[in-house]
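Sample 1 of the test manifest.
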Amino acid sequence: MDSQESTLTIGRLATAVGVNVETIRFYQRKQLLREPPRPLGGIRRYTEGDAARVKFIKSAQRLGFSLEEIHHLLLLDEGMRCSKAAEIAEIHLTEVRARLQDLERMESTLANLLEKCSRGDKNVTCPLIAALQTDVE
Amino acid sequence: MDSQESTLTIGRLATAVGVNVETIRFYQRKQLLREPPRPLGGIRRYTEGDAARVKFIKSAQRLGFSLEEIHHLLLLDEGMRCSKAAEIAEIHLTEVRARLQDLERMESTLANLLEKCSRGDKNVTCPLIAALQTDVE
DNA sequence: CTTACATCCGTACTTGGGTACGGAGTCAAC
DNA sequence: GTTGACTCCGTACCCAAGTACGGATGTAAG
């Protein structure tokens, strides 16, 4: 049933995940994605796993991670010595939690603005800048 | 008390917020930051408000927003017609909530990995890719 | 078996977000 | 009133993350 793998050409993979063919090839050059074996002068075939990987890259980028950071995260997914994994995970976890806090503050500030608006206030300001002033001195 | 404004030169502003002088000037060219009046051939002075604005820009960038999106967010902070503000806020709120979900999943996946490690497992994998598979079909 | 369309691969170009450079002006301290 | 550090401004350069180009090869349909 799930042996129906390897049916994707690069073009179909690209449209499936919503990126350019060149982007796939670019990720391969950057070692973010494997380059499937090429059957003697033939055409490479990709799996659903490859598609998931590209989607992950795109999602992580939306969250503000660089391709280099994403490279580390992907290594975690692949499995590795625990001590090393923990080291990487810890660094990223700290970052992720900091971003979560900022995003939560941004969320509530924006939600607040919308509520004020629906109350019928004509002109509004939205203290967004203040929302992200983390610098607790 | 708070009339002790405008004491920052561009260099002091830059070091205060931890960016390059050139970055400040770049943001001014991009209209993300006002260019304070220049007293007849003299030197521009910046306020704490300018510093907060630059910090906001940097924080928002970490959250994955582009300078163009940040430009919109800053307009909200400045106050505007409610209908227009609501429109902008709504778009960004949707985005922010989607990112929050992804980040939360990433957070719990990473936290989980760390816990498994501290339990003494030798080798671990971290289903990070799966964590961000949002595509609810 | 040829025609149309895709893949392959190398190289070149683009865009966003800065950095660096250099000559001229300013300002404070000696 | 000169020296040193800083500002001003324009222009040029840089890196990350793609995008585009184009000739050669592969492959499916008529």
